[in-house]
Each structure stands twice: as C-alpha cells, then as structure tokens.
Specification:
heterodimer; A: mainly alpha; 9 helices; B: mainly alpha; 4 helices
Chain lengths: 191, 73
C-alpha cells in the first residue's frame, strides 16, 4: 500500500543519473529520490551546517526509507515521513560524542555546492548569501532553525510542521514569529 | 515616425527586461521563508549520494559507514 503510494508520486527530471547517463538507483526508487532529495539534503545541510555530514545524512535517510518502505502507511505524505526520519537522524548526529567534541574544519566546503548553469558572478553571490544564511541559522536556537527550514518548504502545512515538531499549530505560529525575528536580527549582523 | 516609435517601444521593453533582471539579481526577499526557498533552490544535491545509495541498497543489511569510522572522521 505505502510502496504503491510512494511509487505513484509525480517524478521530476532525473538529476542523479551518473555522468554517463546511467541510472544509479533502482528504477522504482529513482523518481522518489529525485522528488525529495533536494528538500532532505537542504534540511540536513542547513540544520547541521556541514556539507559532508549533510551528504552522509541524506544517504542514510534514503537508505532507511528504502529499507522500511513497507512501514510507510500513507497516513502522512512521503515528504513528511522522510522529514521525520531526517529530523531524528540529524538530532542524533548533533547529540553524538563526535559532534559535541569536534569542530568542523575551516576549509569544509559547506558553501561550494551550487546549482549548475550559473555565471561566476552568480555563484559568488550565492556563496555569499549561503554563508550569511548559515551563519544566521547557526546563531539562533536549533528549535527555531528547524521551524524556519520546515515552513520554508511549500509542500508542508503548519499542521504537518506541528506534527513533525510535536507541537500544536498555535505553538508553531507563535514560535515562528519569534524565529523570524531572531533570524532577521542574526542575519543583519552578518552584513 | 512610426518606425521610431516601434524602436522606442522595443528599447523600452529591453530596458524593462534589464531592470527586471537587475531587480532579480539584487536578491530582495519579502520573508525569511522566501529567502530560504531561494537558498534551497540554489543548493544542488551532490551527485555522489545517489551512487552511494544505489550501492547501499544493493547490499541489504550492510552498514554504509561503521560507528568507529564515523568516530574517526
């Protein structure tokens, strides 16, 4: 049942065939991955603030999803289900010994990944903006960071964000207001 | 005269298009959510994830990175 729902989702243009154009994922999983991978990777990247950790987390989240497709009952949307896995995974990573004791290297290429087909100027702009966004997100409480990242996904309703963060819609709205203010203040300091 | 008017209209269209492009390049956002959406749209998913994932899916039950490797990295 769940698998059928997932596989019936509208796919997007394949972006993860290898350079030779060969498919690297099982056909039935590829559309699912292409449809949700950007959202999951972006959440992991901005929540963890480290591109390598985000890459690993995205891999692990989709691997868990692939191995537990039979547990997806279709009560929530596939995106919500994946976010739930991703949030738990990222929180576990943040609480791990490694994360509490190690600091990311200064040359970590967090800002190096930008979409293709852009002029150099555009890439420079994007890098600067991405850097400022990450700095601002790092400066606000993780709860606010997560809320802002989730509500910025247009596929999620406030109800779904509430479910994902274990709180009521009213609580989401109240905290979101404070989260926006905190982000704007932190973002202004990055200028 | 009519031709000149046509030319002026064309020029105006070009100027409007340039202005629109410049405004877009100025990266102004109405909300935090809009800013984050733009950032997400600019963020490419590394190609290597799909390849690793494909390999991992083919090897069921084998952990992709052991706990000690995560600890050391």
């Amino acid at each position: 049942m769940g698998v059928e729902i997932l596989m019936n989702e509208v796919g997007v243009l394949p972006q993860d065939s290898d350079s030779a154009g060969h498919h690297v994922l099982p056909d039935e999983f590829e559309d699912f991955y292409n449809r949700h991978s950007r959202a999951i990777y972006y959440l992991a990247l901005r929540f963890l603030g480290d591109s390598q950790k985000a890459e690993d987390a995205t891999h692990d989240v989709f691997l868990k999803a692939a191995r537990h497709l039979d547990q997806f009952r279709g009560e929530a949307s596939a995106r919500t289900w994946l976010y739930k896995i991703a949030i738990n995974h990222c929180r576990n990573l943040q609480q791990s010994w490694h994360n509490r004791h190690m600091f990311p290297s200064s040359d970590s290429p967090v800002w190096e990944t930008t979409a293709g087909n852009e002029s150099p100027l555009r890439i420079l702009e994007t890098k600067e903006l991405g850097c400022r966004i990450q700095t601002a997100l790092d400066a606000i409480p993780p709860e606010y960071r997560l809320l802002l990242l989730l509500v910025s996904d247009e596929e999620l309703s406030y109800e779904q964000v509430g479910t994902l963060t274990d709180q009521s819609v009213d609580a989401v709205r109240g905290k979101l207001h404070r989260a926006r203010k905190a982000f704007v203040a932190a973002f202004a300091k990055t200028e | 005269m009519k031709q000149q008017s046509k030319f002026s209209t064309h020029q105006q269209h070009e100027q409007d298009a340039e202005l629109h492009a410049a405004k877009k390049a100025g990266l102004e956002f109405d909300s935090v959510e809009q800013l984050l959406r733009h950032d997400a749209a600019q963020t490419a998913v590394p190609q290597g994830i799909a390849r690793r994932l494909g390999e991992s899916i083919e090897k069921p039950g084998v952990p992709t990175r052991s706990w000690w490797r995560r600890l050391l990295e």
